[in-house]
Write the structure tokens for this entry.
Amino acid sequence: MEKIPTLSYIRPFVSTRNACKLCSPLGACIAIKGIEGCVPVIHGSQGCATYIRRYLISHYKEPVDIASSNFSEETTIFGGEANLKIALTNVTNQYQPKAIGVATTCLSETIGEDVASQLSHIRNDSSNSNLPSLFTVSTPSYQGTHMDGFHATVLEIIKKFAKKLPPADKINLFPGFVSPADIRHLKEIIIDFDVKTTILPDYSDTLDNPVWDQYYRVPKGGTPISELEKMGEAYASVELGVFTTVKQGGQNGGIEVSGASWLESEHSVKNHQCILPIGMNSCDSFFDILSKVSGKDIPVKYQMQRGRLLDSYADGHKYIFGKKAVVYGEEDLVLGLCSFLDEIGIEVVLAASGANSGKLQKEIIKHCPEHGKTIKVISDSDFEQINEACNTIKPDFLIGNSKGNYIAGNFNIPLIRVGFPIHDRIGGQRITLLGYKGTQELFDKVVNATIEYKQNNSPIGYKYM
Amino acid sequence: MERIIKERSTQVHTIGTSVHDLDCEKKSLAGSVSQRACVFCGSRVVLYPIADALHLIHGPIGCAAYTWDIRGALSSGPQLHRLSFSTDLRERDVVFGGEPKLYTALTELIEAYQPKAAFVYSTCIVGVIGDDVEAVCRKVSAEQKIDVLPVMAEGFKGTKKDGYKAACDALSKLVGTDNEFQAPPFSINILGDFNLAGELWMLKEYYEKIGVNIITGLTGDGRINEIRQAHKASINVVQCSGSMMHLAKEMEEKYGIPFIKVSYFGIEDMADALYEVAGFFKNDEMLEKARNLVSEEIKTLLPALAPFKEKLQGKKAAIYVGGAFKAISLVKALRLIGMKTVMVGSQTGNKDDYNLLKKLCDEGTIIVDDSNPNELSEFVKEKGVDLFIGGVKERPIAYKLGIGFCDHNHERKEALAGFEGMLNFANEVYASVTSPVWKFFKR
């Protein structure tokens, strides 16, 4: 058996080799799964829904039902409204959902489907009186990545549901694309701050259920629609991540909008944005924001967590100092990880993302005071680019999703699995990265990976560090 | 809530009580959450194991990303098939046409990776924007002096089965292009085995032991140059009849090569596969060798299966797999370990397959075509099964309900074909069904 071929030289490619991104409708489906009682429908070929289901199931290890409007040749020529109507009727009858979110595809976008007006036709058709709330999001897979689909869906959900209401004593939290365990941890933090909060999207249960005594066609959990309607009455939003906007308005330049920034401009909900709280610096910023918006001190529990994290930084710092890391994944994840690694003395030698917002380098420089300026950043990247770059940069470990495993294998170095997807291990949905607690888990993993590497490669072997 | 969508009720049949015939080979119903994929998927799964070819997916990134190195199809040599190449079309390509990008991508990849041939898969959008993929392939083929084969696999143009045909069409352009090759006597081709977890290697060993030579496994540990020689075989031995029948039939018409349909799962079907090939060659020595091989294998296998059978006797199983031919073998294989099939279905079975299943299974067994998670969860609950056999998409249905599961899909890492595979199968079923973890579940 030969090895998977790797080029020993670097040349430019217009093709993508082992994509480090996924398509937009996948992100839309994840966000839709975060709404209570909501079922995603993908408006396109059957394969889009099935492939995305398969991909999500392999990570979350949960049933992930996504319906398809199942385009045929006739649909492609004459339009998809009839099929969409059948799909919505069948989904309604089978699932009795509270809402259905329709994500478009490259196919339906290219043939020029106006899904919003199709939905209103279908809604106005009296034979469909039992249809639940319907909304749609434009997610052509030739635009952006799964993250654009995710954030566009968050924005569309708010636009669809948020009502003009007088201000109330509550906040909104936009966690971004993080693990179900991370969302659960964020909930715990909010409860401890004792501030009423709506989280969007909240797939902490729907994509990570406990075992069932009966089969739930629509898994329990998710942000209730009644909460979505009230997101405009919050006095503040906390938005995790800085690559959260999607372009709106198109032709005349367009403006960049996120769910939180739209609430700010349309409903005067003050938005507080910070990068993913991974690491001491960014967790401090996040907890400061929570303290500020809630008007409460940081609970002792988190001060203790912070203290223990700092204590462990002292315990572990020597084993990792100067180690070289390659980081890849979604831009917000990459930025969060870079900020963390930078503050613990690790040199990120390559930060790569399949996305291409044009802002990653700038943000990394801003948030990585130690090495930020020398970190090589590749946007619109793919795994083979990362693989080939590793020939010269010789990293000590990789950190990112499981798709980089083969690169770690090529260089016989550890891969620290975080993010999405984790297809070659169980528990990807339970990895906590956020907060002092998540950072602690990650820090221990990073330090132990380097110790284990040294131990395994030591001819003597040793029982003490 | 509806148990079954009305329009789908004819695709579900209970042996003994249903009056209608089972309806099948239909397009999936919109909104039904079918477990099927699309035309592209059909072509991609078939051609993927051809290890020394470049596989370039022409379209936006999703189709390539979701099919990157997802099958357990092993290669004994080159591993080029495990890289995922895409033209990764962007908005401007969609507006102005994707041909220039396809041309550049193909050229650069062929130069860099020096494949023996290239397959170019058309995805949904390519059919709509009107790229002339065939013309680009011809041009690059002439310039680079290798075969560049278009695979017309636009997702919406039918079902997964149409994708099988698109793959066979591409393969048939390669078959017969090496006429220099002289085949040894008793040469066969294996069609429709994907060498999952090295299964083809086991089969190869069996066939070689009885004096049969395999020219190519086409889609299992496949090589371009061997596929070119496939027309020199005396017979095509076809497994997974759904995917490769087009090619088998075409080769029969074009080269007069007959085919037989076999399965390698379970003792009975595995033995038959050897006997049928020996029978075809009308060679007594070969038949004798086949009998010896089977009896040798059984001599060790049956006692090894006995303890599993004892523990699994009377347990109930549900099967939902891609092809019905495999389901038929599985029903038989389960019997060998004392288990009874109470629900069986497939994504792409045909009338003949389902009729055979009806004959094979007991009264009360549910047979289902093109099912979905809601139906499957209802059926396994109704029937109180102890084991579900399926793939990634079926697995969480079983686990959520506290039911054992056996992966019998393309991702599997355990060889389940052949005699050795039967033991692995029994072991996997036993491990999942009798695991103590289920004691914590309310059933």
In short: Chain A touches chain B through 82 residues (CB under 8 Å).
